Amino acid sequence: MQRFLFIGVGGSGGETLRHLHHELTRRLGLPNGAALPVGWQFVHIDAPLHAEDRDDLPRLPKGSYVSLTTRGLSYHTVAKTLLKNDGPAQADCMPWLPDATQVRVPILEGAGQFRAIGRALAIFRLAQVRTKLDDAAN
Q1: Mean pLDDT calculated for residue range 14-35
Q2: What is the pLDDT at residue 33?
Q3: Region 82-92 average pLDDT
Q4: Cα torsion for 50, 63, 9, 107, to the nearest 10°?
Q5: Which residues neighbour 26 within 8 Å (Cβ) at sequence distance 6 or greater?
């Protein structure tokens, strides 16, 4: 049996992972709550503090969710950190980065369908995402 690492990014990516997990469980004829093979890992990466429930499918296994936010984190802090060198070269590398004074999205609840905000959060939390993906791959 081959190993697989399934990665879902954003709310739709997480919902797709939940559908995939449910379908694999069903096709293998496993009872509710039974685990899939350990070589099949699922990682959902998204902005909200907690994984969202959008339908009646079961949640992914515990530890599958990676939040790109933490309590008390604001987009202003994220943007300031990413632009900490505050020079024109740094700003030129990220022309897509939304101006923190214009962002009104409460990032603890998600990126509000703004891909650039999600991208900024992913870069800000890249070390945590990398660790989670390494752990899942191993």
Answers
A1: 90
A2: 73
A3: 67
A4: 30
A5: none
